[in-house]
Amino acid sequence: MRKEKMEEEGKEESKKDNNKDNNIEQSLEKENSDAPESKALDNEISEADQIKELEEKLLRSAAEVENIRKRAEKERAEAYKIGISIFVRDFVPVLDNLQRALGSIKTAEEINYDSFVEGITATEKDITALLEKHGIQQINPINEKFDPLFHEALFEAPSDEHESGFVTQVVELGYALDKRLIRPAKVGVSSKK
Q1: What is the pLDDT of residues 31-85, one digit of tens each?
Q2: Do 60 and 143 fall into the same domain?
Q3: Which residue from 27, 101, 179, 185 could staple onto 174, CB 3.0 to 4.6 Å apart?
Q4: Are 126 and 182 in a shared domain?
């Protein structure tokens, strides 16, 4: 009987061991079946972190670009002010001369026309030299072919001396800075008779 009892106990233990093994296997299977969900969740979290990091980098880059743009605009404005101040510094003495000449005239009877014209001519030469010093060229296209990029036609007139399309009269000089138009020359253009 004892032998039978031992056999029975052995069978029961074997069943318990089998149950334990089954429980462990089921737990492992459950964990393994949860593992893809867990991995998927980890991947989603990792992707969310990457997205957040990329968004932060994008915002930093956008802020950096904006700062560079503002700095460039500030530098451009400063360079413009410096350029203007240099030009004005050179122009003021010419203006002073013109104001002295005009201030010396008391009445029409006191005007010496020859010296007055001489002074105005000298002032015009000073202004022209000043413009040239700063890279500004006059556009005086008399007897040249009309160029709509640098000339503005005010009128057409028949001409015996020129073919059609040539500048016969300059009403106002034009000006350019290093081939960049500041103001077109206002001109009269020859036409066919």
Answers
A1: 555 556 666 667 777 888 889 999 999 999 999 999 999 999 999 999 988 888 8
A2: no
A3: 185
A4: no
